[in-house]
């Protein structure tokens, strides 16, 4: 049984693992139905409501009771959880029922930024992971945070190379030869993804290069950015494309991906753009820096530093076409060597089914 908080995200990043598990096992999925829940052929899918961001104790208690009822009904031999609430509440229920369970920490998010919230989340995780078989992390920095907080012992930790990237789906494409440079951001339009820094950089670059530079934003936005994005789009500072089911056409037309994020587990957009042969400019943080070779497949920038982002974006703009092309080739090679989805899936499978 796999317990998660988002059917769309599970399909996007874990469907290959699920297919591998289905070769020798029956797979049941507990998750909110928010897209692609009908595409898990052969899986039993059970809808579960989750308030992904809320901290209402009554709502979370209801979720925990739902997990307990379903686990008793389904009687899984093994449970794997993704994201904080399934990790904590699913883990607690599995522990109480004596069901073997594995957890995936896909990133720390904002949970450890506030001291009070960090203490609370640490206590929850300590209780939930007491009898966990293994905790999967997507970068060493997040794993070390759990070790430093004595949440889980080092012998129960497994660091994977994110979810990996499907090298066939995100195939290499020749670099654009036109002289209008397209920078692309793919993801949720929110402060923690570095959107303020991107807006600052876009304005300065437009002042310098006018129509010779384009900033494409692909993704859905937090409400606080609605008016800002509409105005920037109207003023020609950015091109906002909204949420897209398939981001590949936008990556193909781009010259460089931007992700000045504040925190990540493993940023899949870095892996996808790199696999398609596009350089990246990303924050020097766990979850981003692993997916890049600084100065060879792109540039690392200091987190929350808008001037550093502008300088690196401008530095990239001034590179020769040959240098940009070589960066893209280097990016693809790194994905082939380290982040191949098939390798990550098999490594995960062997931990679950020795």
Would you write up a description of this structure?
It is built from 12 helices and 13 strands. It has 354 residues and is an alpha/beta fold. Strands 3-2-1-4-5-6-7 form a 7-stranded parallel sheet. Helix 1 (7-22) crosses helix 12 (341-352), helix 6 (195-209) packs across helix 10 (306-317) and helix 9 packs across helix 11. The radius of gyration is 21 Å and the shape is globular.
In terms of topology, how is this protein built?
Layout: E1 2-3, H1 7-22, E2 28-31, E3 44-47, H2 57-74, E4 79-82, H3 84-97, E5 101-105, H4 115-128, E6 134-137, H5 140-148, E7 157-159, E8 181-186, H6 195-209, E9 213-218, H7 226-234, E10 239-242, H8 248-252, E11 256-259, H9 268-275, E12 280-283, E13 298-301, H10 306-317, H11 321-338, H12 341-352
Parallel strand pairs: 1-2, 1-4, 2-3, 4-5, 5-6, 6-7, 8-9, 8-11, 9-10, 11-12, 12-13
Helix pairs in contact: 1-12, 2-3, 3-4, 6-10, 9-11
């Amino acid at each position: 049984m796999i317990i998660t908080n988002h059917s769309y995200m599970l399909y996007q990043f874990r469907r290959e693992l699920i297919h591998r598990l289905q070769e020798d096992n029956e797979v049941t999925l507990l998750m909110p139905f928010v897209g692609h829940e009908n595409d898990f052929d052969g899986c039993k899918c059970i809808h579960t409501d989750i308030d992904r961001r809320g901290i209402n104790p009554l709502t979370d208690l209801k979720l925990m009771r739902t997990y307990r009822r379903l686990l008793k009904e389904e009687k899984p031999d093994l449970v794997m959880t993704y994201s904080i609430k399934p990790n904590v509440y699913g883990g607690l229920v599995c522990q109480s029922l004596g069901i073997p369970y594995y957890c995936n920490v896909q990133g720390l998010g904002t949970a450890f930024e506030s001291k009070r919230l960090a203490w609370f989340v640490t206590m929850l995780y300590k209780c939930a992971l007491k009898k966990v078989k293994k905790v999967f992390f997507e970068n060493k920095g997040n794993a070390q945070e759990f070790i430093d907080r004595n949440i889980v012992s080092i012998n129960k930790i497994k660091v994977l190379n994110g979810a990996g990237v499907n090298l066939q789906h995100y195939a290499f494409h020749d670099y654009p030869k036109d002289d209008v440079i397209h920078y692309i951001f793919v993801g949720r339009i929110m402060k923690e993804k570095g959107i303020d820094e991107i807006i600052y950089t876009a304005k300065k670059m437009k002042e310098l290069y006018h129509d010779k530079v384009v900033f494409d934003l692909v993704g859905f936005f937090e409400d606080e950015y609605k008016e800002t994005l509409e105005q920037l789009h109207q003023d020609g500072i950015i091109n906002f494309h909204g949420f897209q089911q398939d981001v590949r056409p936008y990556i193909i037309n781009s010259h460089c991906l931007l992700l000045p994020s504040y925190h990540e587990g493993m940023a899949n957009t870095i892996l996808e753009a790199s696999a398609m042969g596009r350089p990246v400019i990303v924050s020097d943080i766990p979850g981003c820096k692993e997916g890049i070779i600084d100065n060879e497949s792109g540039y690392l920038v200091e987190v929350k530093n808008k001037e550093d982002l502008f300088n690196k974006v401008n530095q990239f703009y001034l590179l020769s076409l040959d240098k940009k092309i070589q960066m893209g080739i280097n990016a693809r090679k790194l994905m082939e060597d380290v982040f191949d989805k098939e390798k990550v899936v098999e490594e995960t499978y062997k931990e679950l089914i020795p």
